[in-house]
Design brief:
alpha/beta, 39% helix, 279 residues, 7-stranded parallel beta sheet
C-alpha cells in the first residue's frame, strides 16, 4: 500500500504556506508520512518546488510560489491545489517573518505594516480562500500558526506580539462561522523552536548552540523542534480532532504554565527566556 492510502491523513489534500523551510517544511513531511498529498506554498517558489520533488513529485506534492500578503497569489495557490488534486481538505497557514523589532518609540511604520501584512493579512487571506474551496465540500480543517508571544506579553517584539495575538482571535472568530460548513479552525502556538528565521541555514555549530540554550531553559529539559510543532498540526488536521475547533494549543514544554528550569523573577514564576522564532 502506498503512503497515500494509509495513515492519519490518508486521502486528504493539504496546503501549507511557508512550506519550504522550518515548521512548514517539517509539517509538509509529516503530512506526507501520514498519507496526505500536499501543496507546498512559499514565497520562494524554487524552494517549494524542490521540496515537492524530494517528497515524490506531482503525484504526492507540488510547489507553488505565494506571497501570503497578496490575494491573487493566495487564490492561485488554492486553485492550483484543486486543479492538481481535486480539492483542499486541510490548510496550514504558517508563513511568517520576525518583522519589526526594537523599542516601540523607534519602530518604523513601514516595518510595522509589513509585519502585520504577512502575519495577520496573510492568515486572513488563507482562511478566506480555504473557506472558498472547503465550503462546497462541507468539511475541512484549517490550522494557523500563532506563538506563545500571542498568549503572553513581553516575549516577542511589539509588532510580532500584536500579530500573533490577532491570530488567536481570528482563529476563534473564523471557527464560530465556519463550523456551520463542517470546517474546523484551530491554531498552534510554538514556544522556543530554532528555525531558519533565527539560525543561518548550514551553520550547524550555531544551530547546536541554540538547541543547547533552549534545552537549558526548557521546563522539560529538552529542546523543541519544528517536528514537535508539526505533530500537533497533524493532530489538529486529522479526524482524531473532529470535535476540536476554535482552540490554540501551546507547544512550549510548559513555559506558559509557569514551568521553569532556570531562574524565577523574585518568586513570581515568570521565566527569563524568550522565543527564538516559529515559522
Amino acid at each position: 500500500m502506498s503512503a497515500q492510502t494509509q495513515g492519519r491523513l490518508a486521502g486528504k489534500v493539504s496546503l501549507v504556506t511557508g512550506g519550504a523551510s522550518g515548521i512548514g517544511e517539517a509539517t509538509v513531511g509529516a503530512f506526507v508520512e501520514q498519507g496526505a498529498r500536499v501543496v507546498i506554498a512559499d514565497v520562494r517558489a524554487d524552494a517549494a518546488r524542490s521540496v515537492a520533488k524530494e517528497l515524490g513529485g506531482p503525484d504526492v506534492a507540488i510547489g507553488v510560489g505565494m506571497d501570503v500578503s497578496v490575494e491573487k497569489d493566495v487564490a492561485a495557490g488554492f486553485d492550483a491545489g484543486v486543479e492538481a488534486f481535486g480539492c483542499i481538505d486541510v490548510a496550514f497557514l504558517n508563513a511568517g517573518i520576525l518583522g519589526a523589532s526594537g523599542p516601540i518609540s523607534q519602530t518604523r511604520v513601514e516595518d510595522w505594516d509589513r509585519t502585520l501584512d504577512v502575519l495577520v493579512k496573510g492568515p486572513f487571506l488563507g482562511i478566506k480562500h480555504a473557506a472558498r474551496v472547503m465550503e462546497p465540500l462541507g468539511r475541512g480543517a484549517i490550522v494557523l500558526t500563532s506563538s506563545i508571544a500571542g498568549l503572553a506579553g513581553g516575549i516577542g517584539s511589539h509588532a510580532y506580539t500584536t500579530a500573533k495575538t490577532a491570530v488567536v482571535g481570528l482563529t476563534q472568530s473564523a471557527a464560530s462561522e465556519l463550523c456551520h460548513f463542517g470546517i474546523r479552525v484551530n491554531a498552534v502556538a510554538p514556544g522556543t523552536v530554532p528555525t531558519n528565521m533565527t539560525v543561518p541555514p548550514g551553520d550547524e555549530a550555531m544551530g547546536q548552540r541554540v538547541r543547547d540554550m533552549i534545552a537549558a531553559s526548557s521546563p522539560l529539559g529538552i529542546a523543541g523542534s519544528p517536528r514537535d510543532v508539526a505533530d500537533a498540526v497533524v493532530y489538529l488536521s486529522s479526524d482524531e480532532a473532529r470535535y476540536v475547533s476554535g482552540v490554540t494549543i501551546a507547544v512550549d514544554a510548559g513555559y506558559l504554565a509557569g514551568g521553569t528550569k532556570g531562574q524565577f523573577h523574585k518568586g513570581e514564576g515568570h521565566m527569563t527566556t524568550g522565543i527564538a522564532g516559529d515559522n
